[in-house]
Write a structure and sequence with these properties.
Elements (H helix, E strand, L loop, with lengths): L17 E4 H15 L3 E5 L14 H5 L4 E3 L4 H13 L3 E5 L3 H4 L3 H8 L2 H4 L9 E3 L17 H5 L5 E3 L4 H13 L4 E3 L9 E4 L11 E4 L4 E5 L3 H13 L5 E5 L2 E3 L3 H11 L1 E9 L4 H13 L2 E7 L8 H5 L5 H12 L9
Parallel strand pairs: 2-3, 2-4, 4-5, 5-7, 6-7, 10-11, 10-13, 13-14
Antiparallel strand pairs: 1-8, 6-12, 9-11
Helix pairs in contact: 1-8, 3-5, 9-13, 10-11
């Protein structure tokens, strides 16, 4: 797997960070890469009018319909065309609208893009970015609210990225577009309006986690929108005198084992919380790896194995709240039954 770039960064330096939304940060990232590299193209439904979340706003007007290409409603055709473009030397950004719709283009991604470098002895590569907004979409029900990042992390040959902030959405999207491998890039469906400072000069490599809060009681690991709930849980715990190492994984594959293990080795306890269904979620991989390497106490917290409901009451059953995370942390910190203390 090649996470390095063969494309130099060409950007206009700015003196200070600028406040913008998660969606605006994504537009800026694509614009900068399209300015820097004429091989970068965008392909997908509604990209000409800016995308359904505004994540391509103004790009077709700036770069023309030959580089920002509207397509028919066929995810298989869009993904297949993107794979062909990449094999032919372009660097396509392939828009799937939402991860739920990407399931219609899975064969092209799973059996072609992910395996090409291996099956043909490195003669070709598929440097595409498949953007698949994921997670619970408010009041959008079971077919528009899935968190499927663990599916893609399971597949050899794919890089998987889940940014949680405007800065990371800018920096990680640029890193993804410069990668030589197919990248599944999962932006959360409800983060588009999130505002934050974005510094164009800040580089975030693929595969590097970030510690957002420092503490010694336990290590809390998450990604994407769930980081917000984890941060709120840390506030609840801090009010009780409990300090937590909060780690935003940012890239699920390759995940930053060294960063997480360093924290867990110090705290001795690990809690992984994610919005995806807990059963077979990626949190299980992190928990098992850390337990094997350090012998730490571990716990996982994810959604129940149910479809996301349409009504607010049912939808809430699929959410992992800050209070649930705080309660799981308290349970992890409690002495084990039968343990000798004192």
């Amino acid at each position: 797997m090649d996470l390095t770039s063969d494309n130099p960064i060409i950007s206009t330096p700015i003196a200070t960070a600028e406040a913008m939304t998660y969606a605006e940060a994504a537009v800026l990232a694509v614009r900068r890469e399209m300015e820097a590299d004429e091989r970068v193209v965008v392909i997908g439904e509604d990209v000409g009018r800016g995308g359904i979340f505004g994540q391509y706003k103004g790009l077709q007007q700036e770069f023309g319909p030959e580089r920002v290409i509207d397509t028919p409603i066929s995810e298989a055709a869009i993904m297949g065309a993107g794979v062909g473009m990449a094999l032919a030397g372009l660097r396509p950004v392939v828009e799937m609208r939402v991860v739920d719709f990407a399931l219609c283009g899975m064969d092209e991604l799973v059996n072609q893009a992910a395996k090409n470098r291996f099956m043909f002895g490195g003669q070709g590569s598929v440097p595409l970015v498949a953007r698949m907004p994921g997670g619970i979409w408010d009041a959008s029900a079971a077919q528009h609210s899935q968190s499927l990042e663990a599916w893609f992390a399971h597949l050899p040959g794919l890089v998987v990225v889940c940014p949680s902030t405007p800065q990371d959405n800018f920096s990680l999207l640029r890193s993804a577009m410069r990668s030589g491998d197919p990248v599944v890039y999962i932006e959360h469906k409800t983060l588009w309006g999130l505002r934050g400072d974005v510094d164009e000069l800040q580089d975030v490599p693929l595969g590097k986690a970030a510690t957002l809060r420092h503490g010694d009681a336990l290590t809390l690991v998450s990604w994407s929108r769930q980081v917000q709930a984890c941060n709120a849980a840390c506030d609840l715990l801090a009010a009780e005198g409990i300090s937590v190492d909060l780690i935003d994984l940012r890239t699920l594959w390759p995940w930053d084992r060294e960063h997480v293990l360093a924290s867990v080795s110090r705290t001795g306890r690990l809690l992984v919380a994610h919005e995806a269904v807990q059963v077979a979620g990626f949190g299980a991989e992190i928990a098992a790896a850390c337990a094997e390497a350090t012998g730490c106490r571990v716990a996982r917290l994810g959604a129940p194995r149910i479809p996301v409901g349409y009504s607010p009451v049912l939808e809430a059953q699929s959410r992992v709240s800050a209070e649930q995370i705080a309660q799981a942390a308290r349970a992890l910190l409690a002495p084990r039954a039968g343990a000798v203390t004192g």
